[in-house]
Amino acid sequence: MMLHVIAAVSFLVTGSAIGAFGIFAGTIIGYYSFMVILKKKREKIIREAEAEAEVTKKDKILQAKEKFLQLKTEHEKVINERTSKVLVNENRLKQKETGLNQKYDEAQKAKKEADLIKENYTAQLEALEKRKEEIEKEKRSQDEKLEAISGLSAEEAKNMLIESMKDEAKTQAMAYINEIMDEAKLSATKEAKRVVINTIQRVATEAAIENSVTTFNIENDEVKGRIIGREGRNIRALEAATGVEIIVDDTPEAIVLSAFDPVRREIARLALHQLVTDGRIHPARIEEVVLKVTKQVEEEIAEVGKRTSIDMGVHGLHPEIIRLLGKMKYRSSYGQNLLQHSREVANLCSIMAIELGLNPKVAKRAGLLHDIGKVADEEPDVPHAILGMKIAERCKEKPEICNAIGSHHDEIEMTTLIAPIVQVCDAISGARPGARREVVDSYIKRLKDLEAMALSYPGVVKTYAIQAGRELRVIVGSEKVNDADAEKLSFDIAKKIQDELTYPGQVKITVIRETRAVSFAK
Fold first, then answer.
1. What is the value of pTM for the model shown?
2. Closest-CA residue to 375 (of 435, 333, 425, 432)
3. What is the DSSP letter of 501?
4. In whole angstroms, how far apart are CA 519 and each of 412, 479, 513, 522?
């Protein structure tokens, strides 16, 4: 179209008016025709677009309806599920309510039955009380009739009956008591016996042989004069240097060293041995040898303490305590070597702690140190247990060990489970046969008292105290004492010994009754 316009304009410019007008008119007519065609196409496109939009609209509406129906279906499904759950819960609640109502009805019924039983029981009690009163009246009436017939009062008849049944009742009571005691011992102390027996069985030590004097053997009596010296100067120098009394008497080839302190006795013995071996015995030499021996003994004490702590597996001890352990080697208590006793108590404590489920290392440490107060350098007027506890506290030992040391003779209160174990094991070590030396006279007297006490009972023929007085065997005549009397006799003797005599441990009484028939074939 623009080309036609340009052509028309150019034509006009050239001056051809008619040709230009014709061309312009044709161009305008073509333009209008073209515009009409375009308008028709536009209207057609608009109609097609409107039809397509109508179809799209209907599709969207259908999709929206389908989505709505789908959501509605899902919503109804959820509502139905919730409704079913609510119905199930309602059913459960109804069932529970029904069950509770049944239980309530049953409880009411049981209450009514209990009330009826109570009323019946009360009525029966009242009837029994009335019956009891009637029986009491009848009994009193019968007693009065019996008293009138026998000519005896009820009290007199009772006494006669008691006297007639006294021996039989006593025998039965003795048998019953023995049975009850045996049963109680087996049931109540079975575990304790097992622990103590297992503990004692694992320990065996030597018997006591120590005392307060030491015998120094010499080759001949000429050495005695050299030890005494001119005007007794050598023996005086030796006694002054060692603090030991040296007894030179008529005992052949022997000199007695007497002192309460065993360390001093050992120093004096070793010094005498070196002096006699060397042959040079004079005051200056005596002082030199005594100083040298004293140093050796101190080193030996420290070495013994270290070796003891290593052997027992007790580590980390203070040097002062190690030295006190070494001194125990030269100290005895009632004839029992103190170091040996402490080692024995430590082993017993360890074994018993294992049996009881406690710490064996702590128990062994407390047992080993329980008597360190006996060898302390200072000797104040306090018990050795308290002194040992103070030493242990000063050496930074644990409180439970200090308490066990201080309380093993009940000077202070026990606060731990280790303390009674140490006390018991100390008693076991000291009470076992042969552990401590007894005075012979008192020992023999105790045995004789046991035999004489048993021999004083009627029917006893012979008595023998055996096992160091731990068992008493009583032989009775078979024609004088029967089996029941033998059992009663053993109980009576045991009770009398327990009440009248003092003895360590326990004494077993065995009554022997036998019948022998002897014939001779000739």
1. 0.45
2. 333
3. -
4. 68, 19, 20, 10
